[in-house]
């Protein structure tokens, strides 16, 4: 039987071993992991759903952006929408 541990249980077990810490870093790490999983799933389905094509815009380096670039950006923005709250909480 395998004793491999996935990322989320590992993050929370490590957090439990540090009871004096706030847990905000663990939440941030878990949100990043979740956004990466969502992004991987969505891009993996891109061939089926037709979301892999180029868009009509370019990035700062002049390269054409593709639809997964926008999707991944939106997912990360959604995942970290609470970070402003976190910053205010840590600074107060």
From TrEMBL:
<dbReference type="GO" id="GO:0042132">
    <property type="term" value="F:fructose 1,6-bisphosphate 1-phosphatase activity"/>
</dbReference>
<dbReference type="Pfam" id="PF00316">
    <property type="entry name" value="FBPase"/>
</dbReference>
<dbReference type="InterPro" id="IPR033391">
    <property type="entry name" value="FBPase_N"/>
</dbReference>
<protein>
    <submittedName>
        <fullName>Fructose-1,6-bisphosphatase, type I</fullName>
        <ecNumber>3.1.3.11</ecNumber>
    </submittedName>
</protein>
<keyword id="KW-0378">Hydrolase</keyword>
């Amino acid at each position: 039987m395998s004793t491999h541990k996935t990322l989320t249980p590992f993050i929370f077990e490590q957090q439990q071993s540090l009871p004096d810490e706030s847990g905000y870093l663990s939440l941030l790490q878990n949100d990043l992991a979740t956004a990466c999983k969502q992004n991987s799933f969505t891009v993996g389905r891109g061939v089926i759903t037709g979301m892999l094509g180029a868009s009509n815009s370019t990035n700062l380096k002049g390269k054409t952006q593709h639809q997964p670039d926008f999707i991944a950006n939106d997912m990360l923005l959604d995942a970290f929408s609470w970070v402003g709250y976190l910053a205010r909480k840590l600074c107060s």
